[in-house]
Structures are given as structure tokens and as C-alpha cells.
Design a protein that fits this description.
8 helices, 3-stranded antiparallel beta sheet, mainly alpha, metal-binding, Znf_B-box
């Protein structure tokens, strides 16, 4: 199944390897970009429903394992046997279900299912669910955007506050250093006066000693 999903089935049949971009459940195969355009234009497949391979791969494994090709005969299922509740290929009908009376063409069964009230109701429920999920996703994206904007505002406020604090500390530092220099100058002047006075007294004492001699 993984190779069927990732490789274009049409190109692979021609021994060309190209990655598939969409999956057609009715053709039970992947299609590359070029084959997708041809598939959409072809009369036999233009009404087929296709989905991106990336989305198809997200389906539950039980759904991915469903095949539209008969495992026994390698032919596409064309008939649905109500008696045995199973899809059949052309050879299955001939070999096993030839006597079964309640058989329908699968395309008709699918069309009837798609037009049933239950199917339409399910479509509506899924549409509402998809709408709700989109709203929730957009809301969460808005939450992320709001968080980023608030973070940016707070970050800017922190930077501005930091700048104000830095400016205040710079001013305070400058003021304290000025006061420190002023105090140093004041005390130095006092000490110099004291030293000068001491030196004067030393000179007088020295003169007195000289006179005594």
C-alpha cells in the first residue's frame, strides 16, 4: 500500500517512477501532477473523487487496507452481492455468485448510498465538525499570535525599565564619585594643613636646639 500511495500508478505501468500527489479511491491508485490533469479531463474519470495523498495517508489503517481490486483475480470490483455482503469482480460473479439474485452494480450502490438521508446527514455532521475544527484552529492560532504580541510588549517594557534603571544607576554612580572626590579633596586639604603645622613646629624646635648648643 505504501508504494501505491507514493508512486503514480499510471506512470509506474509505463515503467516511469513519479511521485503521486493525489489518490483516487475509484481507480484505487495514486496520480502524479500530470496524470491528475489527464484524469480530471478524461470522460471516464472526470467525476471521480480525489484527495491529496498527504490527507489520504492520515486515514485509519483499517480504511487504508481496503482495496477495490479482487485479491483472487486481480480485477476491479464491479458487483456487490447482497446475499454474501461482499464486493465481486466479473470472474467472482461467474465462478461463485452466478446463482445469487441480489446483486447490484457497485457504482449504483455507491450512488444510492450517497443520496440516502443517512449519508446526507453524515455529510452535514462532518461539515459542521470540519467547521468547528477550523474555528478552533483559527482560535488557537490567534492565541499564539496574541501570546507573541504580549511577549513582545512585555519584552519592550523590560528593556525600557532596564534602560531607566541603568540611567539611574549611572547618574547615582556619577554623583557618588563626585562626592567621593570632594570628600577626598577636603580631607587631603585638612591633612596638608596639619602636616604644614607639624613641619613648622619641627622647624622651631630644631632652631631652639641649635640655640641651646
Amino acid at each position: 500500500m505504501s508504494s501505491k500511495l507514493t508512486v503514480c500508478g499510471v506512470c509506474e505501468y509505463r515503467n516511469i517512477s513519479k511521485p503521486s500527489v493525489v489518490w483516487c479511491s475509484e481507480c484505487d491508485g495514486g496520480l502524479c501532477e500530470g496524470c491528475k490533469e489527464h484524469h480530471a479531463a478524461s470522460k471516464g474519470s472526470r467525476n471521480h473523487s480525489i484527495v491529496p495523498v498527504s490527507e489520504y495517508q492520515k486515514l485509519p489503517s483499517g480504511i487504508l487496507e481496503i482495496t477495490q481490486t479482487c485479491l483472487k483475480h486481480s480485477e476491479k470490483y464491479q458487483i456487490f452481492c447482497k446475499k454474501h455482503d461482499t464486493p465481486c469482480c466479473r470472474r467472482c460473479v461467474t465462478e461463485t455468485h452466478n446463482d445469487c439474485k441480489e446483486i447490484d452494480v457497485i457504482d449504483d450502490v455507491i450512488q444510492n448510498v450517497k443520496s440516502s438521508n443517512a449519508f446526507l446527514e453524515m455529510e452535514q455532521i462532518l461539515a459542521e465538525l470540519s467547521g468547528n475544527l477550523q474555528r478552533i484552529r483559527k482560535d488557537r492560532q490567534e492565541n499564539i499570535k496574541s501570546l507573541m504580541e504580549n511577549r513582545a510588549i512585555i519584552e519592550k517594557e523590560v528593556q525600557q525599565t532596564r534602560k531607566l534603571i541603568d540611567n539611574h544607576l549611572d547618574t547615582l554612580q556619577e554623583s557618588l564619585i563626585k562626592e567621593l572626590y570632594a570628600a577626598e579633596e577636603k580631607e587631603s586639604t585638612k591633612i596638608k594643613h596639619t602636616i604644614s603645622s607639624i613641619q613648622e613646629n619641627e622647624r622651631k624646635i630644631s632652631e631652639s636646639q641649635t640655640n641651646l648648643d
